[in-house]
Automatic annotation (TrEMBL):
Entry's localization field: Nucleus
Keywords: Activator, Nucleus, Transcription, Transcription regulation
InterPro entries according to UniProt: Mediator_Med5_fun (IPR014801)
Entry keyword Disulfide bond: no
Molecular function in Gene Ontology: transcription coregulator activity
GO (cellular component) term, any one: mediator complex
Membership in a protein family: Belongs to the Mediator complex subunit 5 family.
Highest taxon above the source species: Eukaryota
GO BP annotation list: regulation of transcription by RNA polymerase II
Designated name of the protein: Mediator of RNA polymerase II transcription subunit 5
Keyword Nucleus applies: yes
Length: 919
């Protein structure tokens, strides 16, 4: 019998009134009705199609029951055809659909088989289609009128819950997987679904989002651009620290990016953060949903656990900066000629997974609100809602999806306000207004993270334009705002290059000439704010650049960094000598008439800044200058005209006092120091920048012999009040002992390892550690802690890989080279010297680190092609070639560890395909 005639047989039997038992006998006697899938589908459809004309007919139900009982029709194929047919509006009758669902459920329960018999595993596409059809049925069930005689929502929910709790998917098309996840996420947004359906869908979507794509991605990754061809999932299989559940790498990276936000490769350094994410995505073989899920979860975990970086800054990063990074990421990650990834679907998966972490989201909101209260700021709205609103504004998510997961979502009024961004900010922030009046506007902007990106762009444009035209009035307004209110500069550091801001400030200082301004005293006072901004920013963010470059112009940082240098007066020449003599006479001569405009016009401010420390040092040593004359000269520097020059002056005075050992000769310097620091007009920035030197000086017990306790207390309190509240990544304060400072690197490593093992957000400030103990010692210290008892090899490998491959400023020693060229040979020799039974664990860990580091180096090279040199110090092929030769040479000399590492490298398809030296 042909399959087409099967429809006729079923119809004729039904119309002719043939009983189900006779139809069963008739069917079982047909040799063509062997139990293959095509025949079973045809049989099922031949009955189901009759329901269009005979809704809820019990005879048709008996036909299906007999076919299921006699083995003519499998439960899986019946469920598949039922769900497919249920999409037809002609079957949208509560009685019919409830009857069919109940038939499938009764057959399943009576069979005594496991719930896996409900799904047809003919192909991955079939499984995915069945699940999509099941969700479609559930939507229909909830949309049809309620009936007291039929419980369609109950039976449909029961069937859907069973399917999603047991199904196994393998090698499904990515587009279909994402579509299924989107459907499931949409269904979860409905409050009407039953608890068992909700639990099954939540487990399914979270598992698919977190554990999709790992095995195929690793198998297919043979070039520098791994392509994700298929998704894989086995529900119920969980790897607590697999590459699909790795928040360690992201937490370390995110903490580092924010800690060093103003430096090269920091979060505010253009597209560097996005490129770093691309290299992480490629070298770790993550599937897009896994990558985005781990990134978002890690960011929120970092916020909830932060102890150093302000929670408000984390919130601003997540809401205002992360979406723009992801926009750039999706552009950079695209590979010409490769199958495009479904990043929008991946982000939907990640957002859905994040949304289910209600405890985490609530904790983040609470932490940020507490921080805002402490600073006298208004609490923020829901961070999660602002984030998805920004995702929509950035084009990363569609409104339809957002409404599905958050029906209360509304578009922010800020979007309409920001259509004219310049007008919006110009009306609230202008150099013509009183400076303190700008505070309320800044607080309003800070409390609206969606404004942060636009504000940072506006502020940079204004600052740059004012510097180019030497408009010191506008420039001083913005510079003063930047160094007076930490949150403003923090905000800019997330979005803009702080180095560019410093460049424009230095250019203004270098080019400014008082001869061209109408009121030189006002001009110099305004320029002073620019100088204080540059000095405080260099110190606050530890910018070590000797030269700042923008376009084709370079400007030296020594203009503001070397102000504490005292020159031999006889060695000064030219403009410097003339300026010194002019100013020395004006401020320390008994016959001086004060500082006239002609004196100010005759000397460039940059020269005055350079010689200020020399002026004070000479005056304090000059026997002809008594206390009255000295006080008179010092008084000029306590006002706004010259107090911007005091960083170098104060630092030099503290140095001279320390060198002279608090002898009677230091009475003048101590008096001057007290006068300057306790002056009501002394800028907070001066006290802050000189605070460490001052507290170190006053901690010397000898100071008690030359300075009253009241003066000491007053100075210490003034310095303490001026301290930067968010100053991070700095050497320990002077109050710490040398032992405490030296112990910091080991303590930081131990904390990072402990947090990672406890599933918390680890943080490790590599740069601070290196400044204390040097790169080689730090790496050896790291290795010793990684080998401590109770370690997790996977966690240890991730931490070590992060340390040696995180890009750092070009003027810092590259850890990657230090590791491969200096530390690795030492570690190999050390492990080789152990007993053979004690070599396995450290050798395998070392091999894992080397393998991961090489892949990370490769992908960093590929994404940072425009960098002036390889970001890790040497191109990865050169590094690999040298490593291969060195390992083989050691193997020839009997090194077991080198052999283990070589075997690890040669067995990795990714390593061999990209570095043929290891074949």
């Amino acid at each position: 019998m042909s399959l087409s005639s099967l429809d006729d047989l079923t119809r004729n039997s039904f119309v002719g009134g043939l009983s189900s038992s006779k139809v069963g006998v008739l069917g079982s006697g047909q040799p063509s009705l062997s139990p293959n899938s095509a025949t079973q589908r045809a049989l099922s459809n031949s009955v189901l199609v009759l329901y269009r004309s005979f809704p809820g007919d019990p005879v048709l139900q008996e036909y299906l029951k007999v076919a299921l009982q006699n083995g003519l029709l499998s439960i899986a194929i019946f469920v598949s055809t039922l769900l497919s047919m249920a999409r037809s509006p002609e079957l949208h009758q509560p009685a019919t659909l409830d009857m069919l669902c109940r038939t499938a459920l009764d057959a399943h329960y009576s069979s005594g088989q496991s719930s896996t018999d409900l799904a047809d595993y003919d192909s991955p596409i079939t499984v995915l289609t069945t699940l999509q059809d099941a969700l479609a049925l559930l939507r229909v069930a909830h949309g049809l009128p309620m009936s007291h005689f039929h419980q369609l929502t109950t039976s449909a929910s029961e069937l859907v819950a069973l399917l999603f709790s047991c199904v196994e998917i393998s090698q499904g098309p990515p587009a279909q997987c994402i579509a299924l996840l989107s459907d499931a996420n949409s269904m979860l947004s409905h409050d009407s679904i039953s608890q068992n359906v909700r639990q099954a869908l939540e487990a399914f979507t979270l598992s698919l989002g977190l554990f999709v794509g790992d095995s195929e991605a690793k198998a297919s990754k043979t070039t520098e651009a791994p392509l994700m061809h298929n998704f894989h999932l086995v529900v119920g299989k969980n790897d607590a620290m697999s590459s699909n559940n790795d928040t360690v790498t992201f937490s370390l990276t995110l903490n580092y990016l924010l800690t060093h936000r103003a430096e090269e490769f920091g979060v505010g350094s253009g597209s560097d953060a996005a490129r770093l994410f691309v290299s992480m995505f490629r070298s770790n073989s993550w599937a897009p949903p896994v990558f985005y899920t781990q990134l978002l979860l890690s960011a929120f975990v970092c916020l909830s656990e932060t102890t150093i970086i302000s929670p408000k800054l984390w919130a601003s990063f997540i809401i205002s900066r992360l979406p723009s990074i992801l926009v750039t990421f999706e552009k950079v990650v695209y590979v010409e000629g490769a199958a495009p990834e479904n990043w929008r679907g991946a982000l939907q998966v990640a957002v859905t997974a994040l949304m289910r972490r209600a405890d985490l989201l609530e904790r983040c909101d609470r932490v940020v609100d507490q921080s805002a209260q402490q600073d006298g700021l208004a609490p923020l709205r829901s961070i999660f809602r602002d984030l998805i609103r920004q995702f929509q504004h950035s084009g990363l998510l569609e409104l339809q999806f957002i409404l599905a997961i958050d029906p209360n979502h509304t578009q922010s009024d800020l979007m309409s306000e920001l259509n004219d961004q310049d007008g919006f900010f110009s009306s609230r922030l202008s150099s013509e207004m009183e400076f303190e009046d700008a505070r309320s506007s800044i607080e309003r902007i800070w409390n609206e993270p969606m404004m942060h990106k636009a504000f940072s762009e506006f502020a940079l444009r204004r600052f740059k334009a004012a510097a180019s035209s030497l408009d010191t009035e506008t420039l001083s307004f913005w510079a003063r705002m930047f160094y007076s209110w930490d949150l403003v500069l923090d905000l800019l550091a997330l979005h803009q290059s702080i180095g560019e801001l410093v460049f424009h400030a230095l250019v203004c200082l270098q080019d400014f000439d008082c001869e061209t301004v109408g009121d030189p005293q006002t001009g110099v006072s305004q320029l002073g704010h620019v100088v204080l901004f540059a000095q405080s920013t260099l110190a606050r963010f530890h910018l070590q650049n000797e030269v700042f470059t923008y376009g084709k112009r370079q400007v030296p940082a020594r203009l503001v960094r070397s102000t504490a240098v005292v020159y031999e007066v006889a060695a000064l020449s030219g403009e410097d000598s003339s300026a010194f003599n002019t100013w020395y006479k004006a401020i320390f001569d008994r016959n001086s008439e004060g500082i006239e405009d002609t004196i100010i016009r005759s000397v460039k401010p940059r020269t005055l800044l350079k010689i200020s420390a020399t002026l004070f040092s000479s005056a304090m040593r000059d026997p002809e200058i008594d206390n009255e004359l000295l006080n008179n000269g010092v008084s000029y520097f306590t006002g706004s005209l010259l107090n911007w020059t005091l960083v170098g002056v104060v630092l030099n005075i503290t140095r001279e006092i320390s060198q002279q050992g608090f002898s009677p000769a230091t009475s003048k310097p101590l008096h001057v120091l007290r006068t300057l620091l306790l002056s009501p007009d002394c800028p907070r920035t001066i006290r802050c920048l000189c605070g460490q030197a001052i507290t170190t000086l006053l901690a010397d017990k000898r100071s008690q012999n030359t300075m009253s306790p009241a003066d000491t207390t007053a100075i210490v309190e003034a310095v303490s009040r001026a301290s930067f509240p968010n100053l991070n990544s700095t050497p320990a304060p002077a109050a710490s002992s040398t032992a405490q400072v030296l112990a910091y690197p080991r303590r930081a490593i131990q904390d990072a390892i402990a947090n990672a093992r406890a599933s918390k957000a680890p943080s490790l400030d590599v740069d601070r550690c290196i400044r204390i103990c040097g790169p080689a010692q730090f790496l050896r210290m790291l290795w010793s802690e990684l080998l401590a008892p109770g370690g997790d090899a996977d966690v240890n490998a991730r931490i070590a890989t992060f340390v040696v491959t995180i890009p750092r400023p070009f003027n810092t020693p590259p850890l990657m080279l230090n590791f491969f060229n200096t530390v690795l040979p030492h570690l190999i020799a050390m492990i080789d010297a152990r007993q053979s039974g004690d070599q396995t664990v450290p050798a395998e860990l070392l091999g894992s680190i080397v393998c991961s580091a090489l892949l990370a180096s490769l992908h960093l090279d590929l994404v940072f092609t425009e960098a002036p040199r390889p970001v890790l110090g040497q191109a990865s092929p050169s590094l690999a070639r040298r490593l291969a030769a060195d390992l083989r040479a050691r193997v020839s000399r009997g090194s077991n560890v080198s052999k283990t590492i070589l075997q690890r490298l040669s067995s990795s398809p990714s390593i061999v395909s990209n570095f043929p030296f290891f074949k």
